[in-house]
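ok trying this again, last paste got cut off
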Amino acid sequence: MQVTLKKAAELSRAALAAAKAVEPKANASLSVFSLADVSEVVETGRKDFTASLDRSIALVNVSYEIRDLIGTANSAAGVDKLLTKVAAIDEVVARITAALPGADKLFGGESGSDSDDMEALKRRVEQARKDITDAETRRYGGGREDVKIAVLGSEQKKSLTDLVGSYKRKRAALKDELTAINFGTKITLPERLVETLRDEKLID
């Protein structure tokens, strides 16, 4: 039986869910008013327990055998490489976006000037220097010894924004490739796996 990678992944998850739904019972309940033979109750309970456990284990094996087939097909189709590229892009974008917050204001204040305006920047720095040396200002706790300056200009910030956009477009293209592989690549499920899936009514 041939299925797409997407369908195979769904069957793998369904088989594992079915395995978890099976609950082998290590205890049996016997009414004190029952005339049933205790040894027969125990024997029946043991058989039911073994059958349930075997069923659960079989479903787990089916799930992971399908996953193994998916892994082999993914490797052959280059999925691992594509996922590595996506992960790398995610990390690069995270580093860029983490570096940008706070870079658009001078002095960390609400009224900061853009660092492209060097004349305004120089005036603010000079004012800060004047304040720190002014005796009257220092007497009342005014003036700051450090001046925070946003070093990124508008062109640099736009360049970084454009770079992030470029990376995101590359990521979208890679995801499209992965989707195409998921829907277009097929694997063959061994008949014994198909029989178990049919027995469990996971496939028609």
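PB: full thing came through this time. The mean pLDDT is 85.
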